[in-house]
Structures are given as structure tokens and as C-alpha cells.
């Protein structure tokens, strides 16, 4: 993926998925359907946007655990909080 493609993917909502940017900046608000599917604000929704069909709604997963670890490491380096809902273990993937 080129850097421009990655930037586009990060910034662009792909219905019914919000953009990763809107999730991480806190501007995304889940619909009633999202909430019912366990998709609530937090880093886990970003995993759901990127790899939901493969990694989400299936319980604990080593790939998700690794990604959460990397996320926490960079949050620590940047001196920012992790936020809530870091995993997507109990989220249904976006349709």
C-alpha cells in the first residue's frame, strides 16, 4: 500500500464503516445498530474497520493482542491515553 493509499483509507469512510480518523479523534458516534453490534468508540473499532471480518467477534486473538500492544507502546511514547474498548473480541464485523 502506498502512503497515499494508506492516507486515503485512514481518512475515508467506506459505508457502513466510519473512517479510522473519525474513530480515533472521537468524532464518530455509533448508531443504534453499531451499539447493538458492540461497536462502541475506541481503538477496537479501528481493528474492526481494517480487519473485522477476520479478527472481530471471535474472542481473543493473538493478532489483535499484538496490535493492541503496539498501539499502547506508541501511546506511551507520545504520552497519550489508550482510551476504552481496545479490542473487537465481542464486536460484530461491519457488513
From TrEMBL:
It comes from the Eukaryota. Keywords: Carbohydrate metabolism, Chitin degradation, Chitin-binding, Disulfide bond, Plant defense, Polysaccharide degradation. One of its GO terms (biological process) is chitin catabolic process. CDD domains: chitinase_GH19 (cd00325). It holds the Pfam family Glyco_hydro_19. The keyword GTP-binding does not apply. Residues 5-88 form the Glycoside hydrolase family 19 catalytic domain. GO terms for molecular function: chitin binding. The keyword Disulfide bond applies. PANTHER family: CHITINASE 12, CHITINASE-RELATED. Defense against chitin-containing fungal pathogens. This is Glycoside hydrolase family 19 catalytic domain-containing protein.
Amino acid at each position: 500500500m502506498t502512503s497515499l493509499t494508506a492516507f486515503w483509507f485512514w481518512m475515508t469512510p467506506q459505508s457502513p464503516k466510519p473512517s479510522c480518523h473519525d474513530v480515533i479523534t472521537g468524532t464518530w458516534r455509533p448508531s443504534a445498530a453499531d451499539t447493538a453490534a458492540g461497536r462502541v468508540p475506541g481503538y477496537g473499532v479501528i481493528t474492526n474497520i481494517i480487519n473485522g471480518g477476520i479478527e472481530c467477534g471471535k474472542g481473543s486473538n493473538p493478532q489483535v493482542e499484538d496490535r493492541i500492544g503496539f498501539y499502547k507502546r506508541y501511546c506511551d511514547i507520545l504520552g497519550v491515553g489508550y482510551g476504552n474498548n481496545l479490542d473487537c473480541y465481542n464486536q460484530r464485523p461491519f457488513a
